[in-house]
C-alpha cells in the first residue's frame, strides 16, 4: 500500500489513479504542494507551472538534466546563464560497455528549436539502439525534425524548427561519429592536446578552409553561422562521419558550442577537461564541473557535455 | 466548448522592461444549434420630441420601429418606449413586457401608429424606465435600441448619474437621426452600456438601421460574458481595451474578483469574434526569467469558457526582444487612429486649423497604412488627402455636418490585420 501524494488516501500497489481524488499517481501532483522556488509562496505553483502569487515559472525540467552511468559514461545539459530555456538536448544509452551518445543544439533563430533538438536526440538515440549506424541515425533524426513543421504551432511552417547534431557509438575500441552543424566530438588521450574529431559546418570553418586567417575568421560576426543543420529547410546534405580505433586510454567528449566556445584552442580544451576529470572523482562530477566552468565563463549559451572513457585494455 | 481565446504577443522583453502587451482574440461559435441559453428582452426607445416632426423624421421613426418589431423572434419579451419629457410606455401596458408572437407584434405595430412628436428630450428618464422593465427578467439577454434627434434636455449630470446606476444591466445601441444631436452624448451611452453609436443622417435610412441592429441582437446567445484577468503580485493592469470591431476602453469597468484578478464586462455574445488589447505593468526579471504576466479567461458566471496566457520572458538577445508583434502594433495604431480623429475634430471645432490639419494628416497616414479603407474614405469627406502615405492633407472649407458626425461616430471602427500581410 502506498499513499496518494495529493490526498493521502491509501491505494493498492499498481493502481494508476487515486481512487479517492482521481489524480494520476504517476504524476503524483507533488508540485502543487511545493512552495514557489522564487518567492516562497506556500500556496505554490498552479497547474500551468506558474506561481499563483508572483507569476514566475517555477522551473523547467530541461533547465538542468543529468545522465549518470557510473564509470561507463556521464552527460549533463544546462540552460546556462543567459538563455531563457535550454534548447540543447542529449541522449545517453549504455548496454554493458557499449555506449550510444547524442548531443543536439537547437538553432535559436528557428521556431521551437528546443522541440527540434529533443526530437533529433531522441530519434537518433532510439535508432542507434536498433541499428548502430551513425549516418542512418542522423538521417532518421533529420526526418523527425523536418516533420515538425506539420504539427504544433503554425508559426513552425514559417520558421522551420532546426538543430545541429553529433552522434557517437562506442563498441569496445571502435568509435564511430557523425555530425551536422557545429556540435563537436573530441578525443582526449591520456596526454597531449585534445583532438577535434568533427569539423564544424560553419562559416568560419568554411572561410578558414578557403584560406582566411583563422583568427580573423573567428572574430567575424558570421563565424558561428552554421552552413548545415537538421530541419525541413536543410536541403539534401548528407551527414559527415568518421571512425577510429582507440589505441590508448582516453575520453570521448561530445559537447555543444556552449562549452567549446570558451575553449576554442584544443590544448586549452584538453587541459580544462583533464583538470575536471582529475579533481572531480566521479565521471558525473567531472561533467558537472565542465558545466560550472562554462557558466563561470559567462554561460552565454546552453551547455551540454558527455564524457565516455574508452580504453584499449580488455577487461 | 464554443469559445476560444488566443494570445498574440512578443513575450520577449529586454532587461529592465516592464510593459507586457498582448492581443487576445476571443471567438465564439455561438451556443449549440444557435439557441439562446437564456431568455431575451428587447426594448425599443423612440424619441418623440417635437423636433421629430421635421424632415418627416417621426414617420420614418414609426416605420423603423415597425421594422424592428417584425424582426423580434417568437418568445422574446419586448416593449416600446416613447421618449418625450418623461418616459412613456407605448406598448404593452405600462410596467409590462409582451411576449413576441405574430399577434403581439401586430398589436405593437398598431400602437406605433399612435406615436406623436411633441415634448422634450429626456434620455436619462427613458433609459431608467428601460432598466426598470429589464429588471423584471434577470438573467435575460437584455438589449435596447435608442433613437434620438436632439440634445438631451435634462439637467447637467443627470444622464451620467443614470448611466452609472444602470451600467451592466443591459446593452444599448444608439442612433442619432439628422445632425442636431451630440455625438459625445450618445457615445457616453454606448460606452456605459457596451453598445454602438452611429449617425443616420437621412431619415429614410432608419428602417434599414433598425433592422440591422435587431437582427444582430437576435443572434446573441449569451447574456453576460466577461474577461477575467489574473495578474501576479506587484503587477498592475494598465489597460484592457476592446480593439476590434471597434475601440472601447474597458479599464474602468473592472470589478475585482479575488486578490489578484478582476472581471471586465464584454456584454452579450453570439457567433462572433472580437479582439482585446491587454497591457500589464510587471516587475522586471533577470535574464532567462519567465513570468506569467496575466492569465486571461473568458467567463460567464462561474464557468470558464476559454483561457489564454500572457507571458513575459526577459532576454539579452535583442533580436528577440525587438521583434514587433504585428497584432499589437496594428491595434496600437488603430487606437491611435481613433484618438487622433477625435482630437482633430475637437481642434477644428475650436478653430485651431493648424492642429486639426496635423491630426487629420496623421489619421490619414494611419488609416492608409493599416488598410482601414472605411475610415480613410470618411476622412476624405472632411479633408482633401493629397498624399496619405506622408499624411499630407488640406482642410476642406465647407464640411457637411453629417459627414463630420459620421467621421466622429465611426472613428472607433477598426479593421483586422490582413491575413496576407
Automatic annotation (TrEMBL), chain B:
InterPro entries: CLCR, VWA_3_C, VWF_A, vWFA_dom_sf. Residues 41-213 form the VWFA domain. It comes from the Bacteria. SUPFAM superfamilies: vWA-like. This is VWA domain-containing protein. It comes from Paractinoplanes tereljensis.
